[in-house]
Design a protein that fits this description.
The chain is of the alpha/beta class and about 325 residues long. It contains seven helices and 17 strands. About 25% of the residues lie in helices and about 35% in strands. The structure holds fe (ii) ion.
């Protein structure tokens, strides 16, 4: 075990349940710019050009949903340290520290958060060679936005238990949380229920983000919102819906935080702050609907007793 408090180093990957596996793999590999690293009959693991073995995986399911969010830590000793810390906070684990047989391997644990999301904390997975490319392709993922039924409880859990920090608020509707210099790795959006809102893929430059839009346009796919530049996070954005109507974002130029002088702000939800360029206009009802998604019980479907534990704790 390490002497200091363990910390999450970076958002590594997300695993997604999809109702349109074959169509989605075709979209993400032939249009979006990712590449298949592993595949079986009911799942596929895809990478960007960056250093991660995979940045996203898709798993065939009857309903769309979030299967797992994976964070990287420095070492197996840190994974063990996290197990102690989580146990001290009475956070339920569905897998204790050990070697995983999932693609990419590594040494990890899995916890369940208060709304049933599975969070993996992992170290020592397989290295891959970064790819160079002269076509615009995502490096990997840079953030995931999650709908929550209780934004204050979600922020409290991810900050107090998982050690993340609030970078900014969008009124009391969205909270942007970081674990490193990137303005946000996770953002929570107050909603009626817990579900996946969208996954953002990082393009190396704004130029390449726009070239990516051009490629999608060649395939007859236009953004449902964007291009524009967000106030909180200052990132350039364009949002699309994949074949399962899950929302994916090309983003670039995410604000880098200097820890010594950063103070969280509260951004009014005005059109000029939602899009600093003034090009995107308000999000359409179509993209809002796709971002709302379907109520996702996550691991509580398989482990209802864990939900009871959290409810009992709040009582
Ligand atoms: Fe985003």
């Amino acid at each position: 075990m390490t002497n200091s408090e363990p910390r999450l180093v970076k958002l590594r990957s997300v695993d997604i349940r999809t109702t349109a596996l074959a169509e989605s793999v075709d979209f993400y590999t032939n249009v979006w710019g990712l590449r298949t690293v592993e595949k079986d009959t009911d799942a596929a693991w895809l990478r960007g050009t960056g250093t991660e073995h995979h940045c996203v995986s898709f798993h065939a399911a009857e309903r769309n949903g979030l299967d797992r969010i994976s964070f990287a830590v420095e070492s197996p000793a840190d994974v063990d340290a996290w197990a102690w810390r989580l146990e001290a906070n009475k956070v339920p684990l569905i897998s204790t520290p050990g070697r995983t047989q999932r693609p990419g391997g590594g040494y990890s644990l899995e916890l369940v958060d208060p709304e049933g999301r599975v969070i993996e904390i992992a170290a020592e997975w397989e290295a891959v060679v970064p790819l160079s490319s002269n076509v615009p392709e995502p490096v990997g993922i840079t953030h995931i936005v999650l709908n929550t039924a209780n934004i204050d409880a979600a922020v409290a859990f991810y900050c107090t238990v998982l050690g993340m920090k609030v970078s900014d608020w969008s009124e009391h509707r969205m909270a942007f949380l970081r674990c490193n210099s990137y303005h946000h790795a996770i953002a929570f959006n107050q909603a009626e229920w817990a579900s996946i809102n969208h996954v953002a893929y990082e393009m190396p430059t704004v130029d390449q983000m726009m070239q990516g839009l051009g490629r999608l346009q060649h395939f007859g796919i236009v953004p449902l919102w964007g291009p524009g530049r967000h106030g909180p996070g200052n990132n350039a954005f364009s949002y699309f819906a994949d074949p399962a109507r899950l929302v994916c974002e090309y983003t670039s130029d995410v604000q880098q935080i200097l820890e010594s002088d950063w103070l969280p702000r509260v951004w009014p939800r005005t059109p000029e702050l939602a899009d600093l360029w003034g090009t995107a206009g308000p999000p359409s009802s179509e993209i809002r609907c796709a971002m709302t998604g379907y109520q996702d019980p996550g691991a509580f479907e398989q482990y209802p007793d864990l939900q009871d534990q959290y409810v009992a704790r709040q009582a």
